[in-house]
Write a structure and sequence with these properties.
Pantoate--beta-alanine Ligase, Chain: A,domain 2, 5-stranded parallel sheet, 11 helices
Amino acid sequence: MQALSREWRRKSQRTAFVPTMGNLHAGHLALVGQAAIQADRVVVSIFVNPLQFNEPTDFKNYPRTLDEDLQKLADYPVDAIFLPTEAELYPAGREATTIVEVPGLSDVLEGASRPGHFRGVTTVVAKLFNCVLPDVALFGEKDFQQLLVVRRMVADLDMPIEIVSHPTLREPDGLAMSSRNRRLNAEQRARAPVLYQVLVRSRDRIRQGEADFTVLEHQAGGDLSAAGLMPDYVAIRRAEDLADPRPGDELVIVAAARLGKTRLIDNVRV
């Protein structure tokens, strides 16, 4: 992979990279399409990263659909599909590998709910960046905190990589596209769009002038509970770094909730 990327660079060709864990949906494919606009060459990786899973059963049950994924990518201008194995990325084993960690930003909200998750994300993304040597990498905005964490890592470690984000793609009823959605049964799938609906209502109330964010967060959590979801958090934060907002800040409302055994996350910008 490195040799291929270096060859492209010698030809002054720009490389765009889309890292994924497979089980591709339209959101992933939108990133691939955007990558083709951003660069001369497009690389997609598929690797289910064990370091970012808090629950062994979640890692074991994560949908692996390689044949289906390759079929979907065949319709896009992809120059290379990078399929590393765990032994190749973690030759010393999961416990002994060098760790890349972004302090602070990795420890709040999603990081507080899933300790060690972002450490696993930044470690594997840094390794994938070193394998693919991209000029630009693309990430979806559904995982908003992940996007901020990766951007911070790239800035802090002086990686010569441009990070480009792409808006969340949604189903017609508003549910954010996610590989985990296929784990919802029919009744849960019908209920799942409530998460986005609650966030939109909170956003609209802020736009109308409501400024007591603590009250809004509490009410949003209550609305989720009333709809049968188990809220993990609902937080109104500064979009730049997820800090507590100050007057005039651009805002983001982020939330996570469980529906059955499936954990859903979403966000809306204000």
